[in-house]
Specification:
The protein has a three-stranded parallel beta sheet with strand order 1-2-3. By secondary structure, the protein is an alpha/beta fold. The chain has helices at about 20-35, 45-50, 65-70; strands at about 5-10, 40, 60.
Length: about 70
């Protein structure tokens, strides 16, 4: 039996993400995708959203309900 990784990460209290933090998120995303899952980020602040705007690797949703609907 293979596990499916479905990750919803709430960024509401995150003001800054270092390159190491982005690397950790990418590692988590890759692991989820290896297990036929995905990662959805919710509530990003504008400064954090701007950083992720450079990449189309991550999915964003308005809230947890919208995020789980993406799975």
């Amino acid at each position: 039996e293979q596990k499916m990784y479905k990750i919803v990460l709430d960024l509401n209290d995150v003001d800054y993400i270092s390159s190491a933090g982005v690397g950790a998120l990418l590692s988590g995303l890759e692991r989820a995708q290896r297990h036929q899952g995905d990662m959805v980020l919710i509530h990003p602040r504008p400064t954090v959203l701007e950083l992720f705007g450079l990449s189309d690797l991550f999915h964003f949703a308005a809230d947890a309900a919208a995020a789980t609907a993406l799975f």
